[in-house]
């Protein structure tokens, strides 16, 4: 019985951030030759001035402890929204039963692994959109993916890979229209099952992945279990969700 291969990988950022922004290089003040620059002193801005410029308030502190140790890929900035395009995977009870076996075994190698709260297959990186771009961006996505048919996916895609590459190509075109980062070159499409803070792929490689693959292969009806209809594409931008059905 064949089954979808398991993969271990590291990521430089999360795909489920709230509002985020691009880094801005602060300006610098010059000083006369021979003079030492004066230490900067932060003075409070009067409320009357802040009320005149509602977009200039200080950024809230990002406490990673509130997000399981995850750190934003982009610093928080008012008006910027972290955006991600993906195919959702609705986990059935049998899939969750398999995960209940896989995760404890993987945790013997990496105890800090945490089960994913939801499952999906990414079609884009996390990018930053200005708020007024969201609806035009989503409409462009709808126009691009309107004609695509359903495909099948597993933990790592073993069929339908070409169709997913075609989908990514259309999503990339929309990214380019908005001058945003396109998806990875030669991507490996997969559904994440668990995550942890830090890079633990070395602990997962080799013996651990072989043992997990054996569990998947021996699980009853795993070949059928790890297939799912990809019926829609979703775009998450900040706290907004948009769905685009696949025909």
Automatic annotation (TrEMBL):
* First and last residue of the signal peptide: none
- Family matches, as InterPro entries: Usb1
Q: Does the keyword Cell membrane apply?
A: no
Q: Where is this region: Disordered?
A: 1-70
| Active site residues of this protein | 120 (proton donor/acceptor), 190 (proton donor/acceptor)
According to its UniProt record, which reaction does this protein catalyse?
a 3'-end uridylyl-adenosine-RNA = a 3'-end 2',3'-cyclophospho-uridine-RNA + adenosine; a 3'-end uridylyl-uridine-RNA = a 3'-end 2',3'-cyclophospho-uridine-RNA + uridine
- Going by the entry's taxonomy, the superkingdom of the source organism is recorded as Eukaryota
Basic and acidic residues bias located where?
56-66
GO CC aspect terms: nucleus
Question: Any idea of its EC number?
Answer: 3.1.4.-
The record's subcellular locations are: Nucleus
GO MF term (any one): lyase activity
Q: Which UniProt keywords apply?
A: Hydrolase, Lyase, Nuclease, Nucleus
Question: What is the uppermost EC class here?
Answer: hydrolase
One BP annotation, GO = U6 snRNA 3'-end processing
Q: Which HAMAP family match?
A: USB1 (MF_03040)
According to its UniProt entry, what is the function of this protein? Answer: Phosphodiesterase responsible for the U6 snRNA 3' end processing. Acts as an exoribonuclease (RNase) responsible for trimming the poly(U) tract of the last nucleotides in the pre-U6 snRNA molecule, leading to the formation of mature U6 snRNA 3' end-terminated with a 2',3'-cyclic phosphate. 3'-5' RNA exonuclease that trims the 3' end of oligo(U) and oligo(A) tracts of the pre-U6 small nuclear RNA (snRNA) molecule, leading to the formation of a mature U6 snRNA 3' end-terminated with a 2',3'-cyclic phosphate. Participates in the U6 snRNA 3' end processing that prevents U6 snRNA degradation. In addition also removes uridines from the 3' end of U6atac snRNA and possibly the vault RNA VTRNA1-1.
Recorded hits in PANTHER family, A to Z, give: U6 SNRNA PHOSPHODIESTERASE 1
What interactions and quaternary structure are annotated? Interacts with PLRG1, CDC5L and PRPF19.
Family, as annotated: Belongs to the 2H phosphoesterase superfamily. USB1 family.
What this protein is called in its record is U6 snRNA phosphodiesterase
Q: Which organism is this entry from?
A: Monodon monoceros
